[in-house]
Design a protein that fits this description.
Its EC number is 2.6.1.42. This protein is of the alpha+beta class. The protein contains 9 helices and 19 strands. The structure holds pyridoxal-5'-phosphate and 2-OXO-4-methylpentanoic acid (COI).
């Protein structure tokens, strides 16, 4: 097996090509119907960190299982964070990702909150470049498809004392992706969790850490049992304000054309799609209120006709219309409500930028294959 040394600034990445890389025919079969998060490319990135040596041993290696000591602290105390971003293939074949500096900075903020080491923005973006350099053929080209990239960081010191680990691993894996929801871009129903909270004041709600998702799984089961695709969480303190969904932010479109979305109060994830939608809406001259939205506001707004559209947004979900909110004692909206006009128009504009069909006037794209 050849090991090629490559130089990058400031980390140097080595490359060990996979001896088991899939043949073109097998890859194309997967890319024809990738689903979401089911298939993985031939390689992965691995970078080690210790308190003594800092970040070192940056490698692109064959995709495969990690060796973890059973005492690795991530397995016991969930010291873990992750990111999610996509690589889009443009019509000329070139490969681009969307606002990766924002993901890099959010990973740094998550690292601070979880007492993990920060990786520089440059090393984060270089880790994406290195993976795409070797696995670029895994970026599908059909409409609405992409390569979903999942960087993550885990505490892998073998130690059962409860403190920040002295040994950490950063990895990047990639998975060809179609629509996140099985129904594609069709409106989804969401389930209101009244019994469970996602985040409280001073907690980890604004960090992208695995623990937040672990605690969302039980209400997510409830959602599925009730025919809903996602869970909506309310603020833990009053149980009356809309926070966000298990894996997406939420927006409301009002009759006069303005938008509203829950303010960033420290308990919700600072979504990059959310921020981009705010910018695109303001570019159109629309007002966006980042504010407190209560369940009463939502119900009354739908009843009076002031709220005309509701949608979810995130890297995986892009922009997905919400038709109805259901809960044990509540039903707002209509399951047959069609996708909203502004919802779909913002979705089109965002994806046109991501897929290079319209000028990238905000400089949001980073080309990864050149
Ligand atoms: N909220 C949560 C809990 C998420 O997991 C995500 C997905 O990453 C988002 C919001 C949307 O964030 P982004 O638009 O950066 O993907
Ligand atoms: C993303 O949108 O990137 C996420 O991490 C959300 C998850 C539900 C897939």
């Amino acid at each position: 097996m050849t090991v090629t040394e490559t130089t990058s600034y400031p980390l140097r990445f080595s490359l060990t090509p996979s001896p088991a890389a899939r043949a073109e025919a097998e890859r194309e079969e997967i890319l024809a119907d990738p689903g979401f998060g089911k298939h993985f490319t031939d390689h992965m990135v691995s970078i080690d960190w210790t308190t003594a040596a800092g970040w070192h041993d940056a490698q692109v290696i064959p995709y495969g299982p990690l060796m973890l000591d059973p005492a690795a602290s991530v397995l016991h105390y969930a010291q873990e964070i992750f990111e999610g971003l996509k690589v889009y293939r443009h019509a000329d074949g070139s490969l681009h990702t969307f606002r990766p500096e924002a993901n890099a900075r959010r990973l740094q903020r998550s690292a601070q909150r979880l007492a993990l080491p920060e990786l520089s923005v440059e090393d984060f973006i270089e880790s994406l470049r290195r993976l795409v350099a070797v696995d670029g053929q895994w970026v599908p080209s059909a409409p609405e498809t992409s390569l979903y990239i999942r960087p993550f960081m885990i505490a892998n010191e073998s130690f059962l004392g409860v403190r920040a680990a002295h040994k950490v691993g950063y990895y990047v894996i990639a998975s060809p992706a179609g629509a996140y929801f099985a129904a594609g871009v069709a409106p989804v129903k969401i389930w209101l969790s009244t019994e469970y909270s996602r985040a409280g004041r001073g907690g980890t709600g604004a960090a992208k850490c695995g623990g937040n998702y672990a605690s969302s799984l039980l209400p997510q089961v409830e959602a599925y049992e009730n025919g809903c695709a996602q869970v909506l969480f309310l603020d833990a303190e009053t149980g009356s304000h809309v926070d966000e969904l298990g894996g997406m932010n939420i927006f409301f479109v009002h009759k006069d054309g303005h938008l509203s979305t829950p303010a960033l109060t420290g308990t919700i994830l600072e979504g990059i799609t959310r921020q981009s939608i705010i910018t695109l809406a303001k570019d159109r001259g629309l007002t966006v209120d980042e504010t407190t939205i209560t369940m009463d506001d939502w119900r009354d707004g739908i009843e009076s006709g002031d709220i005309t559209e509701v949608f979810a947004c995130g890297t995986a979900a892009v922009i997905t219309p919400i038709s109805q909110l259901l809960g044990s004692e509540i039903s707002i909206g209509n399951p047959d409500a069609p996708a909203g006009e502004l919802t779909m128009s913002l979705r089109r504009e965002l994806t046109d930028i991501q897929y290079g069909r319209t000028p990238d006037r905000h400089g949001w794209l980073t080309r990864l294959d050149a």
